[in-house]
Amino acid sequence: MKEALLYKKLPGKKVQCNTCQRRCVIANGKLGYCGTRFNQEGKLYTLIYEVVSAINVDPIEKKPLFHFYPGTQALSLGTLGCNFRCIHCQNWEISYAQLKPHKKQLDSHTLTPQEVIALAKKYHVAGLAWTYNEPTIWLEYTLDTSKLAKKEGLYTVYVTNGYITPEALDLIGPWIDAFRVDIKSMTKKTCQTIMRVRDFENILAMTKRAKNKWKMHIETVTNIIPGYNDQEKELKNIASWIKKELGPETPWHVTRFYPAAQLNNIEPTPIHTLEKAREIGLEMGLQFVYVGNVSMHKGENTYCPRCGQLVIERSGYFTKLLGVKNGQCKFCKQDLNIVDKPRRITKTQKKRKINR
């Protein structure tokens, strides 16, 4: 176990975790909602510091990130647990995991931050991605590993539900290049139903903070579930918010739901629903709206919003750059909001100290 970075000691050996926005108050000998933070005698510990449940070399497009170092590969890592309990979770086996203090976690192994960097070098990847389950609950580990990654010139990615606290985001912010965030719904009732959280406004606020304060590259995803978040008004609200608060150049991925977890009785999202969602996003003024989890669909491709030329062609996870140069359309010089250069880390950020 490793002592958590962000928590407050309370009377009676209780603690308040300040890593995610649940801000759990945890009694002595108990776990927080995520199942990974344990109060032992008035001190909060993470049970997953070096615990890795999944590790793969993935195309960056699998995250999905389409405008961030397209065509590169990332060493992708996941751990156990989550601060959500999404009823449609595709990785529910690790997200729903129940951890036990002082015991080896099943179906996992340990990797130090140094060993992660060594693997990244071995497999010649361009960066690291914390994915498969929520990286916010892995804060201490992702922070230490991302610092090492930046020293080696590797990019860093959070694939996240966005339910991070401002304190945690500001701690990890200098070291993360891309923030790929889920916007599952913009109604409290639907959010409560599918992810057991009502205050989606805080997710939106943290997404804006990641972009505006920490200059992270942002891409958004809405996994469209039939009968839950597929109404036209809902999709218009999401698209409108992205355009207004993040900018029309921000990619929006509308992805196909497949039966999983507690929604095994729901059919996959009809293709025409995704196509309609893409149409809505474009009509609302977004420049890049992508159809996801559908093989060989033209909605995976990137077209220049000014001249209409096909600039990136995608087939599954095979990516072909046809008209991109220095993040611009090579045909008309339109800015495509494509990142292909590392974010500069200042000396001040390198010297930044962690306040417990």
Cα-based radius of gyration, to the nearest Å: 20 Å
Q: How helix-rich are the residues, as a percent range? A: 10-25%
CATH architecture identity of the largest domain: Alpha-Beta Barrel
Q: How many strands appear in the DSSP assignment?
A: 21
Number of helical segments with 4 or more residues: 9
- Which structural class best describes the helix and strand composition? alpha/beta
Coarse morphology: globular
Please indicate the count of domains. Answer: 3
* Biggest sheet strand line-up: 8-9-11-12-13-14-15-16
Question: Segments where pLDDT lies below 50 for 5+ residues?
Answer: 347-356
Q: Name the beta content range.
A: 15-25%
What does this structure look like?
- The chain is an alpha/beta fold.
- The protein has three domains: about 1-45, no CATH class; about 50-295, TIM Barrel (Alpha-Beta Barrel); about 300-340, no CATH class.
- Helices cover about 25% and strands about 25% of the residues.
- It has an eight-stranded mixed sheet. Strands 1-6-5 form a three-stranded antiparallel sheet, with no helix packed on it.
- A hairpin with a 2-residue loop joins β18 (about 310-315) and β19 (about 320).
- The longest helix is centred in the C-terminal third of the chain and has 15 residues, at about 230-245.
What order do the helices and strands come in, and which of them pair?
Blueprint: E1 2-3, E2 7-10, E3 14-17, E4 25-26, E5 37-40, E6 43-46, E7 51-52, E8 54-59, E9 73-78, H1 92-95, E10 109-110, H2 113-122, E11 127-130, H3 139-151, E12 155-160, H4 166-172, E13 178-182, H5 188-195, H6 201-212, E14 217-224, H7 232-246, E15 252-256, H8 271-283, E16 289-292, E17 302-303, E18 310-315, E19 318-321, E20 324-325, E21 328-329, H9 347-351
Parallel strand pairs: 9-11, 11-12, 12-13, 13-14, 14-15, 15-16
Antiparallel strand pairs: 1-6, 2-3, 3-4, 5-6, 7-10, 8-9, 17-18, 18-19, 20-21
